[in-house]
Design brief:
By secondary structure, the protein is mainly alpha-helical. 83% of the residues lie in helices and 0% in strands. Helix 3 crosses helix 4 (55-92) and helix 7 packs across helix 8. The radius of gyration is 22 Å and the shape is elongated.
Length: 166
């Protein structure tokens, strides 16, 4: 390992928490962790020549570019999935697609009508895939309260859907 790589890896290890917070400004928690791991691999392969005069600045610039690249890749993936969904939707039939979209709008309205903390816990858990422990740490509440909020949201959504079907 070159002297530059060694300095960057040591700095990355020391500043892992701060780097994680920095990257989290641009990415979701899972992507943040993946980006940190990729950053470690990239930092460990930095050549020794020319010497890096400001390793901290260099490391944060690397982190920013990795986060940016990951964000762009995620956006490309979402666009591709949306295009695929449109293609599949075209094959389904216009009437069924309209019914599905109406149901989706109704569920979205129901979620938006939930109490703020219940809604936030539900969205973080079901849509972003965060665990109850991660949500509790993020919101500063207990893990059991997060579970109760998610369950309450699911029950309210289900009740609303059952009421809409009648």
């Amino acid at each position: 390992m070159s002297p530059n790589a060694l300095a960057l890896v040591e700095l990355l290890i020391r500043e892992r928490r701060a780097l994680s917070r920095f990257i989290a400004r641009y990415l979701d928690p899972v992507s943040t962790e993946d980006t940190l791991q990729n950053l470690y691999l990239k930092a460990s392969s930095v050549p020794g020549d020319p010497p890096i005069l400001e390793p901290r600045g260099y490391l944060y610039r690397m982190a920013y570019h990795h986060a940016l690249n990951r964000s762009q890749a995620d956006a490309r993936e979402r666009r591709a999935m949306a295009e695929y969904a449109c293609e599949v939707g075209d094959a389904v039939g216009g009437e069924q697609q309209a019914l599905d979209q109406a149901q989706l709008r109704e569920i979205t309205r129901t979620i938006l009508a939930l109490p703020p903390q219940v809604r936030e816990c539900f969205v973080l858990n079901r849509y972003l895939g965060l665990s109850e422990r991660e949500i509790a740490a993020r919101l500063g509440i207990s893990k059991s309260l997060v579970g109760k909020h998610v369950l309450r949201a699911a029950m309210l959504i289900q009740q609303h859907q059952q009421g809409a079907r009648r």
